[in-house]
User: What shape does this take?
Amino acid sequence: MTGTAVGTHTVVAEWPDAVTTELRPKPPTAGAAGKHLPSPAEPTTPVAPGAPWTDDPYAHALRTGRGPLFLRRLSHSDRPDGFGVEHTLPLDVERWCAPADAADTTVLRRCTGSVLDAGCGPGRLVAALAARGVPALGVDLSRDAVQRTRRSGGAAIRRSVFDHLPGEGRWGTVLLLDGNIGIGGDPVALLRRLRELAAPGGLLLAEAAPQDVDERLTVRVENAHGHHGRPFSWARLGTTALLSAARSAGWIQTGRWTAEGRPFVELRRPHAEHPHAQAPITERRPPS
Assistant: This one.
């Protein structure tokens, strides 16, 4: 693990009491894993759309721990980008709902200080960090994602990364994995927001798409039966595009690597941006 100026393991000091009570760790539960992804349904299948990531097929997939689940492209692109001929991209629900794997571990080993997982999904990374004794908080819009994270022993709150969050400007590490660079459809705006959340000198560990892409999309989540949520803005960035967006957002590249075919980058928030920046999050345990 690398060190930063933001200190050692700490716990979040700013959670409201009601949230702290809700986030008490619970015994882990195992998720089911599927092996084969069938093809998505034809886009003309009658459906009843739900809100993106909350009451659409994504929520059901998190409850069951398995897919198949897809992102369907609704906007046009003429670049090869990993979407199949049916304009769908499989979402790796089984991996997200399983324990952290070898590629994930290469990221977790780089974490330092308290960790914020932006778009934590079912919480495998937050749970793995908690098992290591590392204070970590997941943030996700999905109620089912937050509940599954808590059942696995992690801490999570249901909010957007653009909402006010605990410990703003004091997180030692921020995680942005599993395609979450796409959140909001504006990568530079997202990366600027995450820089606000990180402490001066703090890290952002981000995952890029394996293809050399740089695109803004309109997509929806759907399952193999064609049931889907409402369209929303998304983005997909390969490593080159992600690093370019990071520079525009004020991050400094400090590393890059690939594990199990997944490309990652390590970025650092400069130390000297704000001479009066808040101190890093320090430990404060609830009274016994």
